[in-house]
Specification:
The chain is of the alpha/beta class and 251 residues long. It has a single domain, classed as CNF1/YfiH-like putative cysteine hydrolases, CATH 3.60.140. It contains 6 helices and 14 strands. It has a 6-stranded mixed β-sheet with strand order 3-5-8-7-9-13. It has a 5-stranded mixed β-sheet with strand order 1-14-6-2-4, with no helix packed on it. Strands 10-12-11 form a 3-stranded antiparallel β-sheet. Strand 11 and strand 12 form a beta hairpin. The protein starts with 17 loop residues before the first strand and ends with a strand.
Length: 251
């Protein structure tokens, strides 16, 4: 078993209260074809090995597993403000102001989005593939933070983690027709390459965030098979990475 390779968000590094991470493939107990730190329980891997991987990940981050929130992701624009641990049905974004509560999402090409407000000590995490982006889940999450918890978007720091980048993300006209054409390049008859990360970035800007307060990880999950799981590359044999964020109290 190799050592873990956990990706932090540089934009949060000066804020000691925010605990966050994005997992990668190296390390863990899963066997071929999921080999590595697969954290997904619903992708066909041995659940006992996945739980061992989760134990390893959460222990590494010093996060108690009874303080975690897991959404059942459905590529929706459903957003929940939460104040207790557990499973949230049919949800793709979570928000909290509760200390020592840790929000999670799982991805394997879709983009994880981490949001933190250092003024109100609010954290959010968003799962956005193209379906979520077509419904503006990122922008809607920011608006829910504003209306539900009195967060000022001008104070927000955000990081868009690794996902499938434009050069490897071919879509058809049905996807093209749901977005502004500026996010696409032609890629053969009826097909296009899509810059999904840019579309998400623009949604955050439109919701009131400042450009300099958004970090973008340019890694491509499809391309870096040694570092990331990718559903488009590996299909049903793809594992899952996990993003996590929470506010740790000083007590």
């Amino acid at each position: 078993m190799k050592s873990l390779n956990i990706i932090p968000c540089d934009i949060f590094k000066s804020h000691l209260s925010v605990i966050h991470a994005f997992s990668t493939r190296p390390g863990g107990f899963s066997k071929v074809p999921y080999q590595g730190l697969n954290l997904g329980l619903t992708c066909g891997d041995d659940p006992q090995l996945v739980q061992k991987n989760r134990n390893l990940y959460f222990n590494y981050l010093a996060i108690p597993q009874d303080r975690l929130v897991f959404p059942v992701q459905i590529h929706s624009d459903n957003i929940q403000i939460v104040d207790s641990p557990g499973v949230i049905e049919y949800c793709d974004a979570l928000i909290t102001q509760t200390p020592n509560l840790y929000l999670t999402i799982q991805t394997a090409d879709c983009f994880p989005i981490f949001v933190f407000d250092p003024v109100t000590q609010t954290a959010a995490i968003i799962h956005s593939g193209w379906k979520g982006a077509a419904q503006n889940i990122a922008g809607k999450t920011i608006r829910k933070m504003k209306t539900g918890l009195n967060v000022d978007p001008n104070n927000l720091l955000a990081a868009i983690g690794p996902g499938i980048q434009m050069k490897n993300f071919q879509v058809d006209a049905s996807v093209y027709n749901q977005f502004d054409s500026k996010y696409f390049k032609p890629d053969g008859p009826g097909h296009y390459k899509m810059d999904l990360q840019l579309a998400i970035f623009d949604q955050l800007i439109s919701a009131g965030l400042n450009t300099q307060q958004i970090e973008r990880n340019t890694d491509c999950t499809y391309e870096k098979s040694d570092l990331y799981y990718s559903y488009r590359r590996d299909g049903h044999y793809s594992g899952r990475m996990m993003g996590i964020i929470g506010i740790r109290s000083e007590k």
